[in-house]
Amino acid sequence: MQEQPTQPETQAHRRVTPPAARGGPLMWLMGGALAACLVLVLGLIGLIVVRGSQTFWPKAIERVEMVAVEGGEPEVLLGRLMETDVYRPDRDERARIEALNAQGLLPQSVDPDEPLERILLQVGNREFGAAAFRWVPLYEVASRSRPENTVVLERLEWGPFIGSVDALVFDRWLPEDEALFDERPASTDIGEGVATREVRFVGGERRVLERVTVPLVGEEGFRAFEREVRSAKDRRRVIERLERGERSEVDRRIGALNMRVRRAELEREETVSDDSSMPFWLWGGTTIASIGLLFAGVRLRRSTTDPDHPGRVKPGGFLASLMIGVSLAGLFFGAVDHPWSGPSMSEERLESIRAEHASEVERLIERGEEIDARLSELRRDDARFRVIVTDARTGRFAPEEVGRPGEPMRLSQIDRAVRSNALDFSGRLGVYFDRWAQFLTDRPRPDGEGGLLSVIVGTVTLTMLLTITVVPLGVIAAIYLREYAHQGFITSVLRIAVNNLAGVPSIVYGVFGLGFFCYIVGGYIDTGPDAPAARTPWWALVGALVLAASLAITLMGAGRRIPGRPSSRAASACRIGAGLLWVAAVALVFYLVAATPYFGGFFRAEVSAGQPVFGARGILWASLTLSLLTLPVVIVATEEAIAAVPRSIREASLGCGASKWQTIRRVVLPGALPGIMTGAILAIARGAGEVAPLMLVGAVKLAPQLPVSTEFPFIHGERSFMHLGFHIYDLGFQSRDSEAAQPLVWTTTLLLIAIVLLLNLAAIVLRSRLRSRKGPAV
Amino acid sequence: MTGTATPRITRPSNGADEPELGVIEAIRAGHEVRSVIHEQVTEGDAVLNIEAFSLYYGQAQALHSVTAPVRRGKVTAISGPSGCGKSTLLRSVNRLNDLIDSVRIEGDMLLNGESIYHPRVDVISLRKRLGMVFQKPNPFPMSIFENVVYPLRIDGEKRRSVLEEACERSLKGAAIWDEVKDRLKESALGLSGGQQQRLCIARAIVADPEVLLLDEPCSALDPVATLRIEELIHEISERYTVLIVTHNMQQAARVSDFTAFMYLGRLVEYGPTDEVFQRPRLGETEQYVTGRFG
Ligand SMILES: Nc1ncnc2c1ncn2[C@@H]1O[C@H](COP(=O)(O)OP(=O)(O)OP(=O)(O)O)[C@@H](O)[C@H]1O
Ligand SMILES: [Mg+2]
Question: In this structure, which residues have their CB less than 5 angstroms from ion ligand 2?
């Protein structure tokens, strides 16, 4: 632009932009910071996804022949190839290599100063003593191959067995007078075999066992083996269903019946010792007088309400509150302490309950024995089918039990047989997905293997319970704090306190949860107060409560703020007094509940039998502990979201004649909902990933039952549960074989992340749907 | 408060002499001044009586003992320089200033002879009798339909037909029906500023208020929309009393029957619009209405 010489120089012409104003370097810095964060987060997630998804892929089975060192036989290893690694040998190993080099034992001489290669083999076969994992340096390997006839057997116990499937064994029990013989050819429907007969003692009885051993040859043989594994699995399922279903139902019912008798006995003891029965006239008089007093109090209250004069305590109003309070206390008295309130278990009734129980239990025990008989028959039948799988290193076959090496493994001990070297890609994919499906839908086995169904259900249930307790609680608290409470010193202190709660270490919440929820609250639910107060002082305290509450209500009325008028000193004194009285009243209520002589707990019989119900660790207490932990997140987020709703639309609503509650309900909350949901999402994410407090309040290594069922009340708050976070900790740090657990740790972590992601995704979808909705629901 | 109130002699309104100066100086010096209120204002039936009403924001006094009747069924305009307390006065009528903790008031207002500020007054039902349109458009983040029928919804009205009928009637009343009739289900936040303001007017009139309080309703509107709103005010003034705050003197002259002129929290002059514009009794009023105010 050509500057006109005639134009005068204005201020605008002299303006400059300093280099820092453009913020170029800062922009790079910020971008760099973001990139660094992304790399870290994506790196972590990527690692978990990659490692976690590899676990179930069928790995090749390597047969490794080592060079013969120290003059012995050359060692043969058979194992799953887990990893290949380059390493630098330490000093001891270097010396060893040099010695081997000098003896000329190695196939090629090795330079110990160079990086060397090694492989990690999972050799399994724990019953033969060796470690389940072996690092094998490649220089010691004479030959490597991947034989097709080797198989990995995933067993229900003792981990995987790797070997070659050589023969199937079929047993048959014959009467004792059958002729014995050593060996005879026999033919079965899967091929020709050899039969032997020998004498066995079954339960003290002499029997003849005929055992037919059919060698498996080639592809045909393996197919037959797989078929047998499948039918063995079916047999196992039948047994398991019977055990877990009918058999445990019988036990459960016997337990419940015992509890019933125990309860009746406890009640009988109390009936004998409890002789303080309320006289009828006192009870009737109190109740009638209370009703009269209630009506009189309500009328008096109506006629003495006069809001014109703030700061003046009206004796009439106080009297009215007192009358209402006393009448309510009287009605309460009538409700808890009526003449027929005490326990009344007569000796005859107890006897009849006992008799009924005895016959019922007898019937159940009989039934249990029947089932047991059927079970042992099924088991004996199942034990007829066995397989001979040979370990490559020792040449011995896998035994049924470690203590009895002579008896080959039962087919039903096999969970899955994978012949990975013979599988093509689609076959491997099939095994992969089959393992995932099992992982997600099976119950865990005591040895830590099996599926994670209970763990997933536990985690999801816990998170749901957490959400439905923390979100309403936090939102209500935040609404009161922001909208109704007078913004002053006390609200500021409360706010700071809530914010600081977020910084308390989670293990502290765990300790608190265990002490407060499990022992105090749970113990209270189970057995009632430990040291109940005597009735007379208790009722005296109820009187004090009524007095305090009436006084507080009167003072509240007297100290009411009137908009537009300055609040007098007397009025603020009234408000402070009312506040203190309410605090005292709440403390009294807590004490009265904690020391009531009228509540003896719901589960005394169970506790006296040593099985506390709520007074132990359980999913309800765990979720309440986590709610406490995540409450600050919800409160802070909700408060901020509420505060962000513009004043102009609140005024619009109030100007339309809406009440404060209607304004909150129809304008403020819908406007704040996305923010509230964000808070809830953060709380869920934090709660779902928390482990430390759960170790104290309810997560266990192996839960006997799911926390949810189809029986009322569907969610069983008193049951202990399994949790993914805890499971990861348990797998990673508490298991016997950390090498074996490591891949599962990755996979479980992947699952936990996926579940948290799913829960969050659900909340986010919900949030965006709420956001796009136009009008609020009525 | 320094000094005593200078008793002022209001001159007969023959308008022959130069109007007297000095009120502004008196207010600035902190003297109490008596408002000049024309007789025509006090003659008729008043729906709202403002009686010696003062309002403080904390220590700062925003209204100084304002006394003024508002005539039933008429349009009354309040005018005055920015910050003189017009909005404050209007918001005091439906007690929206209650929301501000620091606000303190003296005096009272009477709606149909009943106190507005008595502690026993039910503020909610008071506000239901008044409709309010704010300086800045403030639709709710809901659909257009829900915005308009909000006052009915909070009264518990659920019948769809009643709501639809009321919605159409008041949208037509606010001269916006043709523009939004096909998008009633869409969010009100998608409307332009002027449309939003007319939507707010529709919301204010949907429940037939006794008094309509308008706080500069046209400050966000173009001349065409302004004209429509002015016509609308004309129309509804047959049914409602309208109290309107406006900066625009032409607008005050066009729509109002009475005009009040405020300055620094005081009511300075209040009379029939033609008189205030043509024969003001105070020189300051004349200067203000003719735009020569300094
Ligand atoms: N919430 C508040 N807190 C403190 N002071 C306020 C508040 N609202 C208004 N004021 C003060 O009260 C005085 C009157 O304000 P008001 O909003 O009534 O003016 P106005 O006449 O409506 O002005 P405008 O024409 O600019 O809208 C101003 O000095 C303002 O600063
Ligand atoms: Mg204003």
Answer: B 87
Ligand number nearest to the C-alpha of B82: 1
Boundary (domain end) residue, out of A390, A414, A440: A440
What is the residue range of A686's domain?
453-528+613-772
| Residue A739 phi, psi (nearest 5) | -60, -45
Does A630 share its domain with A742? yes
Residues A424 and A466 both lie in one domain: no
Q: How large is the angle between the packed helices A24-54 and A738-772, nearest 10 degrees?
A: 120
What is the number of other CB atoms lying within 10 angstroms of the CB of residue A380? 12
Q: State pLDDT tens for residues A319-357.
A: 888 999 999 999 988 888 877 766 778 888 889 999 999
Going by CA atoms, what residue is nearest to atom 30 of ligand 1? B83
- Last residue of one domain, picked from the residues A88, A120, A148: A148
Q: What does pLDDT average to over chain A?
A: 87
The per-residue pLDDT for range A650-697, each reduced to its tens digit, is 999 999 999 999 999 999 998 898 889 888 888 888 888 888 999 999
What whole-number distance in Å separates Cα of residue A208 and Cα of residue A200? 6
Which residue, among B72, B173, B91, B97, has the nearest Cα to B132 in the 3D structure? B91
List of residues 6+ apart from A323 with CB closer than 8 A: A293, A294, A296, A297, A300
Residues A133 and A167 in one domain: no
* Pairing status of strand A133-137 against strand A184-188: unpaired
To test the pocket of ligand 1, the residue of B79, B87, B90 to mutate (highest count of ligand atoms within 8 Å of its CB) is B87
Token code pair at residue B263: 């300055």
Q: How many CB atoms lie within 10 A of CB A82?
A: 19
**Best mutation target, A656, A661, A667, A771, to test chain B (most B CBs within 10 A):** A656
CB nearest A564 (choices: B104, B129, B155): B104
Q: Please indicate, yes or no, if residue A389 is contained in any of the structural domains.
A: yes
Q: Are residues A628 and A756 in the same domain?
A: yes
pLDDT of residue A425: 92
Give domain status of residue A704, yes or no.
yes
The closest alpha carbon to A597, from A341, A344, A329, belongs to A341
Cβ-Cβ contacts under 8 Å, B148 against chain A: none
Cα B221 to ligand 1 centroid, rounded to whole Å? 22
Q: Is the same domain home to A65 and A197?
A: no
pTM of full prediction above 0.90: no
Question: B100 CB less than 6 Å from ligand 1?
Answer: yes
> In chain A, how many domains are there?
3
Same-domain status, A428 and A469 = no
Q: Which of A698, A749, A729 is nearest to A461 (CA)?
A: A698
ipTM of the assembly?
0.89
A743 plus A636 within the same structural domain: yes
Residue A171 has pLDDT above 80, yes or no: yes
**With the CA atoms of B37, B38, B42 and B44 taken in that order, what torsion angle do they form, in degrees rounded to the nearest 10?**
-150
Residue A469 and residue A507 in one domain: yes
A325 lies in some domain: no
The total of other beta-carbon atoms located within 10 Å of residue B44's CB is: 13
Asked, for residue A540, whether it belongs to a domain, the answer is no
The CATH number covering residue A736 comes to 1.10.3720.10
List the structure tokens of B38.
């024309």
